[in-house]
Amino acid sequence: MNHAQRLAHARDVLHRAETASGLSRTEDKQGWQTPQALTPVLPTLTPGIVAIEGSTTILLAIAGHASAQGAWIALVGLPLIGWGAAAEHGLDLTRTAHIPSPGARAPDVLTALADGFDIIVAGELALTVRDRRALAQRVRTRGTAILSTDWPTASAVLRVEGGEPSGYDAGIGHLKAIRYTVSSGSARTSCLWTADGLVDAPRMLRAVS
Length: 209
Known about the structure:
Elements: H1 3-21, E1 32-33, E2 44-45, E3 48-53, H2 56-68, E4 73-76, H3 83-88, E5 96-99, H4 106-114, E6 119-122, H5 129-142, E7 145-148, E8 156-166, E9 177-184, E10 187-194, E11 197-200, H6 201-208
Parallel strand pairs: 3-7, 3-8, 4-5, 4-6, 6-7
Antiparallel strand pairs: 1-2, 8-9, 9-10, 10-11
Helix pairs in contact: 4-5
């Protein structure tokens, strides 16, 4: 066995050991289920890039739902999101990396993360058109998904409106839910962010009526 063969064998053994111990992502994963409330606009999160405009809550809810299924998540360029917010939205912190401000190194950071993480949650980053094109190709070949607040050439775009709180009465009371309307093309759905996560708004309203 020559040097190249030994190296390939070592990498294969390492990969199998990591997968068996839960220390690496599942390479044959074809997609991640999204919260049921969002299935009308995003049935499955597959390799590629999804832009989510108007709400970091919806962004993190999708990531948290995938994290509960075993996904490895990287948060990049989101300095205002801390570990507490990540955990509140369902992310397993033992399988989450956080790079708040990658700066000019953003292209290199994202390229490296695409090789080891299932989902990259990205904020506003210093990326050129060429960087975005190269990263789009890389995540497709690596089986990675990017959820971004700012990606003009995303393969899918979710537009979020609303964010109105409910549960207050003339300034008195506790916040019970935040209502959002999410659309993608002609598809549209309403949902509520509650203490139990993201739920379908019509079903929630029927339950409390």
